[in-house]
Amino acid sequence: MGLSPRATNDRAPPAANLPFGLEPSLAVFDRATLVARGLFADSQSIIILVKDGKAWRSRYDSGAMPQRDPAAEQVIATGELLWIEDAHVHPLVCDSAVVKGPPYLRAYIGAPIRMENGATRGVLVVVNRRPLPYDASKAAQLAALAAFVADEWERAEIAYAHSESNAALAASRTTQAALFSAVPISLVLTDTQMRVVAASRVWETHLGQRDKPYVGRTIFEIAPQVYEPWASLYDECLKFGHRHSGRRVPVGKVGERTMWMQTEIKPWRNSDGEIGGLIITGDDVSELVEGLERAERSEQRLNVALQVADVHVWELDHRRRELIKSEDIDNLFDRQVTYEDLAQDIMCNIDPRDRPAVRQAWRRHVEEGEPYRPQYRINRADGVEIWVEASSRQLRGGDGKTLRVVGALQDITRRRESEHALRQARDEAEAANKAKSVFLATMSHEIRTPLNGVLGMAQAMAAEELSPAQRERLDVVRQSGESLLAILNDVLDLSKIEAGKLELEETEFDIEALARGAYAAFTAIAAAKDLTFELTVEPAARGVWRGDATRVRQLLYNLVSNAIKFTEVGEVEVRVSRAPKAKGAGLVLRVRDTGIGIAAEPLSRLFTKFEQGDATTTRRYGGTGLGLAICRELAELMGGEILAESEPDRGSTFTALLPLRRISRAAPPPEPAAETPPAAVLSGPLKVLAAEDNAVNQLVLKTLLLQLGLTPVVVGNGADAVAAWEAEPWDLILMDVQMPVMDGPTATRAIRAGEARAGRARTPIVALTANAMSHQVSEYLAAGMDDFVAKPIEAARLFEAISRAADGEGPAEDAAANA
């Protein structure tokens, strides 16, 4: 546009400025323009080809076309399709004579004719006297037509290029024979009539001519599908002596695999210097073609992966002053990103708050070679803030100057939001767990302290002479206190399991002794309910097992306790057996009863915390519903499981399968049960200092110690205990943990420091604590305490701790295990 119009019947000479070798393609080009005109009613179309500074324009049928076309020049320069809907308002063509005057063109569409190497060497043009709104489908069709024209041009150029090959074959027939026999490529020597003079073994193999009389036959007879498309090119080579290196061409199939050859054609000359024929070589590039196809498929997969991962790739080319970017990178920023923007300030799109850190990361990458993978915020044009993760690398020239910067951006906004939500949820969970731990520790202390008074005084009174009625009432008090203590222990055990703080201890134990101990603990209760209570330890299960005896005992106690609790008539049977090796369980504990049983629906949630069969069961039999939940948790902690079978009004069977290992040796003889010995067993009178702030607990402690023959001095806080220790030596200090003024661990550390300064002998210190979880006991021992007794204080355990302290021993293993 911008050039004068041409008359309707004025036709350009068909070969004017036509690139050499394109004459056979004129009909194809005419068909292409015909199809292009068909896309738009009342339109005209031409093809403009440019080579070596010359432009060729195809024939057309009607209307007027510009001689010089700035719009076409822009398409060739940019390589992009140009669609001018209305030429009257488009700055590129609005002043053109063919727009302002006849034929009054309004619409212009130019599709780039882009060659395989990416260069734009022509335009397929459509013009119309009325505006043409943009149509993506027709734009795509026009682009496809332009690509078709490019393919035809390249095909014709290849045919023409083949005629350019001109090289002489100078070798004797003997040398030829050796050469053709040894050459590792496809090679055929022809005369000027294209008859085969000689050929290599590879050529014979590729064309299936091994052991066939092919000499003297033309190559068109031997393999027409391979050679006939290049006949005109061979003629050109023979006529002009040109040499041609052609494109990759398929030459047939081997099985399912297509064979590809990279061909070269050149003439050879006789002794007179005249062209005697052609040398046609072909290098097997099948693997190369397959590799390129694989690379193309890989690139396609990569593009899909980049889209799925929301990764945007870019390259800043300083030599060409251009920004190469993935199509959707502008969508990421919600604005067009240009080379000029980034060349002026590569961090122009980064949130100012993050620029210092990003610059520092880039400096370390450039100067120290550290990977560049910063995360930063981008403020989009629409005001939305997004997070991206960047990865970049700069490529330098020999002079050290940056030539290119390549990089990728990944939108990680959702990931950052998820990470923030996870951190927040983690913090909330940790806060909840901390609050739960503090609550449990506080409740444990607050409940154990009064329980210590109840059970301690009950123990003291039990040692006195009482009437049967008084002893019965005392038993009620003691049993009620022990029930409350059992509930507290269940809650603490479950808490430790849920927190992952319950650790199993590997020890050796006699399973029969353990089972009989549990049996003995419930014999009196079963007899009081007139139940048949039986224990069977099968011979195969007897002996020593390795595992956590304390937790196995606890599990068995809970199962037996439940069975007796819910059985009013009939029997309770406890059976210990050894599972077959194929089962993988090892130890099997089975408790069967003829109690109330459980229906199928409640049975499915029986091992849920705070669950029993139904509300009636809870009202009638009591309990927290934690026992079976703890049993299941303990079994799973040991790598086993618990199975339950039940039928209403017929009873239940609970089976614990524990993957413990039986040691092949007889059980050791049982040790005699230790009773609470009198104070006379102690090596001598002990001077005892007791620190306890609670008045009730002071009374309990005094009473129990007096029954052991010890008269303690009692103080009300840790500071008084330190003062008493400084005033005189003591054989033993019983130290409460939580006290006003100064707590027990602080007082202990002060005493230990004083011992070190004064060179005094170490005074045994036993902690008295309602907070007896294992991590808490570890803190007491770390503070310098030698042993501990959990509240509520049992007289037997108190005496054992005093005895160990008097003998200079540390805490007993079972005491630590029960913490």
Structure description:
- This protein is of the alpha+beta class.
- It folds into five domains: 23-156, GAF domain (Beta-Lactamase); 173-291, 2-Layer Sandwich (Beta-Lactamase); 309-411, Beta-Lactamase (2-Layer Sandwich); 507-663, Histidine kinase-like ATPase, C-terminal domain (Heat Shock Protein 90); 679-817, Response regulator (Rossmann fold), CATH 3.40.50.
- Helices cover 42% and strands 22% of the residues.
- Strands 2-1-5-4-3 form a five-stranded antiparallel sheet, sandwiched between helices. A five-stranded antiparallel sheet has the order 7-6-10-9-8. Strands 12-11-15-14-13 form a five-stranded antiparallel sheet.
- Strand 4 and strand 5 (120-128) form a beta hairpin.
- Helix 1 runs antiparallel to helix 4 (136-162).
- The longest helix has 50 residues, at 413-462.
- The protein starts with 25 loop residues before the first helix and ends with a helix.
- Residues 1-13, 165-171, 609-623, 672-681 and 813-819 have low confidence and may be disordered.
